[in-house]
Amino acid sequence: MRHVRSGSVFLGARKTASLLVSIRDCRHSKKDRQWIQDTYPEYLDSLADLNTGLFSVLGASNPHQDEIFANWFSNDQSHPLVILKGSDAVGFALVTRPRVAPAGEAAVNYHMSEFFIRNPHRRLGIGRDAAKLIFDRFRGDWEIVEYQRNPHAVAFWRRVLTAYCAGRFTERTKNGEVHQRFASRPAAAR
Fold first, then answer.
1. What gap in Å lies between CA 12 and CA 43, rounded to an integer?
2. What is the CATH number of the domain that holds 165?
């Protein structure tokens, strides 16, 4: 008989994972900001396999990286978040509020601009739980965009949205990108 600690999930072969997932705004934490900057090259490396040609250019010695982070951490339309498992940083997200809707499209309140969970922490439900926390914190109309060439991301967001909003989301493909739109609401309204 196997015993699993409360607040944990049994993964087999004596492995357990804490289910405590949280998010933290990192605009005012130098430690969190530095963690994101240090982890960002790993994020870009994970995207380089998509063969778009873009992410390898943005890699390690990108002279514009300081500008990217300055915008993340000082723009009042940006919400950089660290994703935590217990007390350990395991990922990050960037939620942005678009200023103007693209021509011919309905406006959204929020856009998931970046979302990353480090490899050792994937497929444990951390990303799903973090996404739910983010949607609950920033209630309103959302858009998430993934590259069609990234089938893992497309499948992840479809699973998350199907569970989060009971499948009530729209999806369209345009210019090699998959766009999902949905409304996040209080749990009682879902």
1. 28
2. 3.40.630.30
